[in-house]
Amino acid sequence: MSTYTDILAPKVNAKSTPQTQAIPGRENEMVKNSAGGFTFQLDMWGYLDRFLILGSDTPSYYAGKKELTIKAAKNVLDCIKADGIRTVNRIVEISEAGRAPKNDPAVFALALAAINGNQDTINAAYAALPKVARTGTMLFQFVSAVDSMGKWNAAAKRGISAWYTNRREDKLALQMLKYQQRDGWSHRDVLRLAHVKPQNELQNAMFKYATKGAEAIAAGAEVPQLLVDFETLKRSGADKKLALKLIESNRDLSWEMIPTELQRDVDVWNALLPNMGMTALIRKLGQLTNVGVIAALSGGSKLAIAKLTDVEAIKRGRVHPITILNAFNQYKQGHGDKGSLTWKPDQRILDALNDSFYESFNYVETTGQGHLIGVDCSGSMWGARVTGAPNLTAAEVAAVMALAVAKREPNYWIGGFNHRMGELKITPSMRLDQVLKVMQAFSWGSTDCSLPMRHALEHKMSGVDCFSVWTDNETYAGRQQPVQALRDYRNKCNKNAKLVVCGTSVTNFTIADPNDPGMLDIVGFDSAAPSLIQEFSKTQIA
To answer: Considering only CA atoms, which of 74, 189, 87, 173 is closest in space to residue 132?
Structure first.
């Protein structure tokens, strides 16, 4: 059986090359990254994945979000031109699986496909619209992109009309009442621009309501019950008794539909809690604690904890691990980033969020492989914020994500690196805030992504089957290219050692050699990252 070294030895180069230079003989395959070091270039499909999962609304340490978005959008267009159907399928796959902290990049990419693809791609994009733009807010994002590019053509009108008319009436009513307007768009705007034609009387009533108001609906016309209850609540003068009765009888009534005057009432929130979706619950933990629903030995606390630890509900709700991590960090602070809302954090809620974070990943069975996990703790990682967790740095989130691997793999070692490397004293038994505290004590520095492999070799760690390096790939400070450090480790310790590069920024740089079957580039903040690492670590490549 051939080893990776046997296959690649002629190309890796027997000498060591500083990271500020391309490997001799491979100059055409390498590019200068934003920090001035030379890395390999990710192919367009890997770059597409990074954009769909990481987004570009949070700037990196070296590049602003406008620059990142322009480059990523150009790559999406290149993918559409190369294979539009493949591009649309990938957008749907990542969006539906909940692999990204935010769905905005998928919506934007789908809009690009609908506007710039050939006819087959356009048809596929609009057919996929309900799968990707699953809520009214996401529809408004899609429509905003279409409108900004001046593409209100027949295909757009048909596709957007289908988003409304192909829904069950009760689901349509929920979307139109829960998400009435966002970012300057309303259903009234969209219905008129797309010339949406109702397919039945219930749709006709909903469309009239959105465009002209309740008074436009003829007396005795058939309307969804949710609309009746919503209007009753709106006109009730904040009648608490009536509100509780309607909430109990109609599970689709959400907090957005409750009169503002009742949104600080503990009884109203207790009534809403049983039917709250997972994402809404996570976002409202502070308010639920503030009003007294979550309190010592309360029924609300018991129900909230049960919902937060319901693994299947987490996965059905496409709740991303970073959403939970951000909620944990926010809830622990005891106050919101905006406004005056404060609360006293409940320890049991923090414990439930901690457990839910790890349960939100997909895992394979323990592989028994030796894992060395290296987390980039350089200045660029500490200076970059994370989409979906704006209060956390890329270094902190990378460490917590990496720990999810160790949670299922008992044979591991975790280290942090910049221009030096040291063990990170974190274990799977530590709570999320303890992990973040350890990370915050690690100093800034320049970036040398060869260190995980060099450290293993220098410290005679001969049992590494898989290196996983969590980095933004902005490496430049080392005296040796990372692939050369892996070559040396393979030659002296384990010929079949693999390397997984978990990219944490939306760039097309990677330290993984695209010609090496023993290296894999994945997106670091992908909810599937731990299972991908596990699967790859046990893969046998002839």
So the answer is: 87
